[in-house]
């Protein structure tokens, strides 16, 4: 049993109180601790990634209680991938927050940031359904604080909406867990998988209810239409770096759907069958359409980026919905890409909004400071988000399209993905020309507004876009590794064997 | 007994859902509290309704009640208590910053203006 597995939860859990209690009055110290902690998380995630690829899934028994009775954390390829993704995004975001001065505009940014990472990492690692609820609450309660960081009336109002929506979601989560426990008598995910497969037919109806409730909860987290209403206002009004960090939060929902849909409710289980796929597929198409039409219709840059995040969740859920290895591999590639792309788009929007004074879309402004560089960044992020060549969004969408070809209604799914991509290109292109080109024509004589160059913020954003380029260049080896990951999660016996021991499965 | 517990959970859930659909922060928070009461009771009975039985091993016990849901309820109560406190603080902050406790934000209003719609709609009569 390797203690590495619990470190991604313990490290931020220790660091955050330390920042609150010991470094409250020293921002520099907070920044150093936060960056060092995030770097440490990256190193731990890299090690766990290596372990998962070489040694296979490993379980960590908390308090050394044997598996179905105690709480377990499980590090497999999928969990390690998500941990690494979260750590990389967090590093970009924390550097940006420091470089742009966002962490100075309110108190306790870094402590809340670390608590958020603790919740996200725990949600990826846990092998216990109730524990998943607890980690969801941890990441949510930290996100409430981050969301209203720096205050302001509109932001607080959006925060109240966000909290209310997610509290209702949490209540639903508890109802689902209670039903699952009443049917199966366990909440350990591996044990649950075993018992679901052997469920007597008389219990099938309740098991289906629990499954549907659970997927609704994850759909709320993943902003699947019709549960996306909390997202646009929250992401648009949250501070830029916080919105960028939230790009990983919707992916927690997608991760949970993928985990439960392959482990606990695979299509082979008689009680639930293909019920998840039947719910996800139409929802995903609607999400795609709502998201991309929202990109075209948005009147502020923040809302445009938020709707782009919704649209990318649509593509992601489309790839998850078939629950077969090739589509899941494509979904994982697109998940990595869309997390980085959405994060970068939020950061670019924040840079633009800081220089224009607000993020309203209009051409009646002077050209912004550092317009050339930021314009290039916006162009790259928009290309990535829309899924145009040459960046990894194109590769991701290509993989998704290829995996969906054999599905029933495959051509309609193609039409949905390609049609919405065109709408997204129009929306992003319109916003780009309004912000970067029109001001030069309308107010050419006006001097560009002065703004400090913020080299660290620009470098952090550049690094994020660099990672997207790297993901494109390394697409071959990455998809190979993700293919093996998808094969692993679609063989639940590997996970069950790692948790319950060879005899348990 | 079953009817009593089940209808209590149902009534609390229904009133909770009704309240969170209101447009003011205060009823919404009450509704969320109502929902958490409902879910806590629900969790409590997921171990089946058993009366006068010990939860832990004892030599003279004829049967046991399931201890796990009780542990889950404790966790759920603690979390929902903390969450309610956070919600109240945020709603209070929003009320003090903006001067009203409406739930909807500026961007949600159809005209996108600073304060669309006249005050004094039916949602004011709470």
Spell out the key features of this protein:
heterodimer, A: 505 residues, mainly alpha, two-stranded antiparallel ribbon, 19 helices, 2 strands, globular, B: 126 residues, Helix Hairpins, elongated, disordered C terminus
What does this entry show, briefly?
The complex is a heterodimer of chains A (505) and B (126). With 505 residues, chain A is an all-alpha fold. Helices cover 74% and strands 2% of the residues of chain A.
Question: How would you describe what is shown here?
Answer:
The complex is a heterodimer of chains A (505) and B (126). With 505 residues, chain A is an all-alpha fold. Chain A has one domain (3-495). Chain A is 74% helix and 2% strand. A two-stranded antiparallel sheet of chain A has the order 1-2. Chain B has 126 residues and is mainly α. Chain B has one domain (2-51, 63-104): Helix Hairpins. In chain B, helix 1 packs antiparallel against helix 2 (25-45). The A-B interface holds A 130, 134, 137, 141, 144, 148, 151-154, 156-161, 163-164, 167-168, 170-171, 174-175, 177-179, 181-182, 232-233, 236-237, 299-300, 303 and B 16, 20, 25, 28-29, 32, 35-36, 38-39, 42-43, 46-48, 68-69, 72, 75-76, 79-80, 82-83, 86-87, 90-91, 93-94, 97-98, 102-108, 112.
């Amino acid at each position: 049993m390797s203690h590495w597995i619990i470190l991604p939860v313990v490290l931020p859990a220790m660091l955050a109180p330390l920042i609150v209690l010991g470094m409250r009055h020293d921002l520099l110290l907070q920044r150093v601790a936060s960056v060092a902690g995030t770097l440490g998380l990256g190193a731990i995630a890299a090690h766990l990634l290596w372990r998962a690829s070489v040694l296979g899934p490993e379980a960590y028994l908390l308090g050394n209680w044997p598996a179905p009775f105690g709480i377990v954390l499980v590090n497999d390829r999928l969990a390690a991938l998500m941990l690494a993704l979260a750590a990389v995004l967090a590093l970009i975001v924390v550097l940006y927050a420091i470089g742009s001065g966002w962490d100075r505009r309110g108190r306790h940014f870094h402590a809340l940031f670390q608590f958020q990472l603790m919740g996200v990492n725990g949600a990826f690692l846990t092998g216990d359904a109730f524990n998943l609820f607890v980690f969801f609450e941890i990441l949510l309660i930290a996100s409430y604080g981050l969301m209203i960081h720096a205050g302001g009336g509109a932001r607080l109002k959006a925060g109240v909406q966000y909290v209310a929506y997610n509290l209702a979601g949490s209540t639903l989560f508890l109802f689902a867990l209670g039903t699952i426990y009443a049917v199966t008598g366990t909440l350990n995910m591996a044990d649950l998988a075993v018992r679901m497969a052997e469920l007597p037919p008389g219990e099938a109806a309740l098991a289906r209810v629990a499954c549907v409730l659970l997927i609704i909860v994850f759909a709320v987290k993943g902003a699947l239409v019709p549960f996306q209403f909390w997202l646009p206002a929250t992401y648009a009004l949250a501070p830029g770096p916080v919105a960028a960090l939230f790009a990983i939060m919707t992916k927690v929902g997608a991760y949970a759907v993928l985990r439960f849909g392959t482990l606990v409710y695979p299509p082979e289980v008689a009680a639930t069958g293909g019920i998840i796929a039947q719910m996800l597929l139409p929802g995903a198409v609607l999400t795609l359409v709502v998201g991309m039409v929202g990109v075209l219709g948005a009147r502020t840059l923040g809302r445009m980026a938020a709707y782009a995040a919704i649209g990318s969740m649509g593509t992601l859920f489309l790839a998850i919905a078939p629950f077969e290895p090739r589509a899941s591999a494509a979904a994982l590639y697109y998940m990595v890409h869309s997390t980085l792309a959405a994060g970068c788009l939020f950061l670019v929007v924040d840079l633009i909004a800081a220089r224009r004074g607000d993020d309203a879309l209009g051409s009646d402004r002077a050209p912004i400071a550092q317009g050339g560089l930021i314009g290039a960044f916006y162009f790259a992020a928009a290309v990535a988000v829309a899924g145009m060549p040459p960046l990894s969004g194109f590769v991701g969408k290509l993989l998704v399209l290829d995996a969906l070809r054999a599905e029933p209604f495959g051509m309609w799914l193609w039409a949905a993905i390609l049609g919405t991509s065109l709408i997204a290109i129009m929306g992003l292109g319109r916003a780009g020309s309004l912000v970067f080109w029109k001001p030069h024509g309308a107010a050419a004589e006006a001097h560009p507004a002065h703004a400090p160059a913020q080299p660290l913020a620009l470098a952090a954003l550049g690094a994020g876009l660099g990672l997207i380029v790297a993901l494109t260049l390394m697409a071959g080896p990455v998809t190979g590794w993700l293919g093996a990951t998808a094969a692993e999660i679609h063989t639940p016996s590997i996970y069950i064997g790692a948790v319950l021991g060879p005899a348990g499965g | 007994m079953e009817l009593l517990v089940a209808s209590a959970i149902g009534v609390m859930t229904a009133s909770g859902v009704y309240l969170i659909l209101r447009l003011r922060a205060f009823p919404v928070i009450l509704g969320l509290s109502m929902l958490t009461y409902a879910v806590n009771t629900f969790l409590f009975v997921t171990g089946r309704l058993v009366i006068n039985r010990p939860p832990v091993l004892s030599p003279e016990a004829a049967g046991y009640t399931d201890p796990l849901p009780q542990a889950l309820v404790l966790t759920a109560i603690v979390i929902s208590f903390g969450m309610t406190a956070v919600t109240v603080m945020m709603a209070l902050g929003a009320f003090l910053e903006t001067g009203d406790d409406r739930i909807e934000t500026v961007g949600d209003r159809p005209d996108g203006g600073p304060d669309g719609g006249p005050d004094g709609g039916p949602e004011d009569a709470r």
